[in-house]
Design goal:
Blueprint lengths: L8 E7 L6 H19 L7 E4 L6 H13 L3 E8 L9 H6 L4 E5 L13 H6 L2 H14 L5 E4 L5 H21 L2 E5 L13 H7 L3 E5 L1 H8 L4 H14 L1 E2 L10 H21 L3 E3 L14 H8 L3 E3 L4 H13 L7 E10 L6 E4 L15 E4 L11 E4 L5 E10 L4 E10 L14 E5 L3 H10 L5 E5 L4 H11 L2 E5 L5 H18 L3
Helix pairs in contact: 6-12, 6-14, 8-10, 9-10, 10-11, 13-15
Length: 502
């Protein structure tokens, strides 16, 4: 389910003009190839960087933009103005461009060659003001883009480009993804609802609904030998409780969990779905609420949202793809309960069952415990804690006239106390800048109770993604104050009201 990011391409497009002569353009071309090759070899940039011939005319710019639009592997353009590229040349191309764009504001030489600099050097190396000319036109056309400033060999420049490319992969992913909803949203819950038509217009993702019986019919086709093989594999990879092992009293519960997983996986694969939802209010035909099955599917890259939450399901998959190859893991999550001791206020994050094993500190334990809701047999689940370190919680909401992405930076801390009577996977964290401010800002933003928790990504990735997707972004971190946050929300309300017109 996870993707090889090297299958994606970012095209390196350099702007110049014929004013300076063929010899200068040859040097521009050679410098551009050198930079593109170096960026393509950077460990911080996970996609292919593809050099494109230097563009010097409106026709050439238009053609490369149209070519990018039609190329499924191309996820965006990285533009660089080596010389002065008159920006009116870019209008027709930029008007047609449907892929994300990044502006690399660099120059081939790092330092000024003080004793040798002459007018030939100045005519060739005009990025300092060529980039400003280009920047004016892109701003005039109100095109969202990321601007990265610095020498092309700097590691920080590589890091910023790498973040942008991962966000571009995320936009490409959500544009082409399908989400399966088994049952509807949890009854009377507001935030998990949303406009699926607008979501397809805005993001491209296709959200389809199915009755739980559609899934149950597929689960019923799973053969015993398939279940036997999966059970044996689980006993090798996990710390399985004795009662669930082969031949033990509750082994049939593990078999049923495996049957559900195999059926879910078959349904999703055959339908081309990369994310899905379930709800405990609609389990007809299933013997237990999918818990362990969902955890394992998420670990393989599928997105998930509980209680019909299709927006969080989609975002989970998108963030997992964006984080491919990074350490830390990404999971569906929920702020479950607070520790309000004034000497150290914290949040316990968990869910009934469905927390992804990619964020586990140690090998998960596979256990069987009762579940007080759903009215089904006791469900199997994996149980683990999360290692300390920085992370984020991200939430995507439909605000009526726009989608809003809110992200809170958090610091995961060690659980000092055992919780023997709470048999769920969990994480303990301190929101930035603190629980009171973080929770207040989150609630003022209308942030959902379901989130995507990631130790692999930070807010910068999500801000780049939101800008490419042209949706609102709100960030809660160590610099957040409630007074300024309220103002930002009000300004955003006015901006989105006016920008959409009548």
């Amino acid at each position: 389910m996870m993707k090889d990011l090297k299958n994606f391409e970012v095209w390196f497009v350099t702007g110049s003009q014929h004013l300076y002569g063929d010899e200068t353009l040859k040097q521009v071309d050679a410098h551009s190839k050198t930079i593109a090759e170096a960026l393509g070899q950077s460990a911080d940039i996970p996609v292919k960087v593809v050099f494109k011939p230097v563009v010097t005319t409106p026709e050439a710019i238009y053609n490369v933009c149209m070519e990018a639009n039609g190329n499924d592997n191309c996820i965006g353009l990285m533009t660089w103005m080596h010389t002065f590229s008159p920006a009116k040349m870019w209008i027709s191309g930029l008007k047609t461009l449907q892929k994300p764009m990044m502006h690399l504001h660099t120059q081939f030489n790092r330092d000024i060659p003080w004793s040798e600099i002459d007018m030939d050097f100045m005519n060739l190396n005009q990025s300092a003001h060529g980039g400003r000319e280009f920047g004016f036109m892109v701003s005039r056309m109100r095109i969202n883009r990321k601007v990265v400033v610095g020498h092309w060999q700097d590691t920080e420049v590589h890091r910023q480009i790498g973040v942008w490319t991962r966000a571009a992969v995320g936009v490409h992913t959500i544009k082409n993804m399908k989400v399966a909803r088994f049952g509807d949203n949890m009854r009377n819950v507001a935030v998990t609802e949303g406009d699926k038509v607008e979501a397809q217009i805005r993001f491209g993702m296709d959200v389809k609904g199915f009755g739980i019986c559609d899934l149950a019919d597929v689960i019923a086709t799973i053969q015993d030998h398939e279940i036997d093989a999966l059970c044996a594999d689980i006993e090798k990879k996990y710390v399985v409780s004795d009662e669930l092992k082969k031949g033990a009293s509750k082994h049939e519960s593990l078999r049923e969990s495996c049957r559900i997983e195999l059926g879910l996986r078959k349904f999703l694969e055959e339908g081309g779905f990369s994310a899905f939802t379930t709800t405990f209010e609609d389990l007809h035909g299933l013997k237990q609420l999918p818990g362990f099955a969902v955890q394992r599917l998420m670990a393989d890259g599928y997105g998930f949202g509980a209680e019909g939450d299709w927006k969080t399901a989609a975002l989970t998959h998108v963030m997992k793809v964006m984080a491919t190859g990074l350490e830390g893991g990404t999971s569906f999550m929920e702020d479950y309960t607070y520790h309000l001791d004034p000497t150290g206020q914290k949040v316990l994050g968990a869910h009934m069952l469905e927390v992804c094993e990619s964020i586990a500190e140690d090998t998960p334990r596979v256990e069987l415990h009762p579940l007080g809701i759903g009215g089904k047999e006791d469900p199997v689940r994996s149980r683990f804690s999360v290692a300390p370190g920085p992370a984020i919680n991200a939430s995507l909401m439909d605000m009526g006239n726009r989608f809003r992405l809110v992200v809170n930076a958090v610091e995961v801390v060690k659980q000092e106390h055992e919780m023997p009577n709470l048999p769920v996977a969990s994480a303990l964290w301190v929101p930035k800048p603190d629980l009171k401010t973080g929770a207040t800002a989150w609630i003022l933003a209308g942030g959902a109770h379901h989130t995507v928790f990631s130790k692999a990504l930070n807010a910068e990735f999500m801000e780049d993604f939101a800008e490419m997707a042209n949706i609102e972004f709100l960030r809660i971190d160590e610099g957040t104050t409630i007074s300024d946050f309220k103002k930002e929300i009000r300004w955003n309300d006015l901006y989105y009201h006016l920008s959409q017109g009548i």
